[in-house]
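pinned: reference chain
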Amino acid sequence: MHQYLKAIGFSETMTRKALDTLLKKMVVENDGQEAVSENENTAFVEIRKKFGPNIGIILYGEMDRDGFHEKCYFPYLEGKNVSTTEDLTVEQNGSGDTYSAACEDPRVGITLIFHLQNAVALQRERKHSNFISKKQSTILTGLCLEGKILLPIYHKNTVQMTCEKDSVAKRKSLLADARKGDEDAIESLTLEDMDTYSMISKRIQTEDVFSIVETFFMPYGIECDKYQIMGRIMEYKKVENEYTGEKLYQMTLECNDIFMDICINAKDLLGEPEVGRRFKGMIWLQGEIQF
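pinned: its structure tokens
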């Protein structure tokens, strides 16, 4: 049973038998399905079923003359914000039924690897354009099993927010130049990192780390698409899984200047979300490529 079903309102008490019944029902009653032919006799099929606002389950399988044969499934969250427009590389996972994508976003400083939500659309795109690696608008979302709410560091006025945006834009430009081999940009980034390290080393002696670091985005554990994040809450809403009645929180976060939506079971969230506060937790990163 997929562990992240809990994040969209299917608690751990759900039995495998009940889940199998639910997946079989999805084949008949769903919100839409797409298919792409693999050969003359079979087609790869993607079935989606919503169980609440923006949440649901995606079921992959193979369709042939004998009917539909289930391969795998996973819970998903629909996002509404384009998170990145950087170059993407997409590869098939070892199971052969799902895909992972990676992009180098300078705002994060690491390679972002995420689970692809629209595999059928990818296969169809590859048949028409030989998609391998190119710039694409991508919507990132995250499912979370536990998290907590932190207070903001301080209230920012308009001038401070403008200065922060200018600083982020400048650093992004320097990183892009540094990748091209610009020695001045590399030197500027090195000096900036040294100043940051010096400032943190002094402040950490008397302050808590979360009063210094406002947001972060870093890999977590040995699985490549799991991340520990902390981000500012820009929007939030409390929703309900219509199948189980469990309450969920969906939040739009700004994390390292990347906007993304996350979903967490209300009983797994410590604290009360409010706009301006921060969310900290571990997420399973998903993404939908906008072809």
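why pinned: DSSP finds four helices and 15 strands in the chain. Residues 238 and 249 are 5 Å apart (CA to CA).
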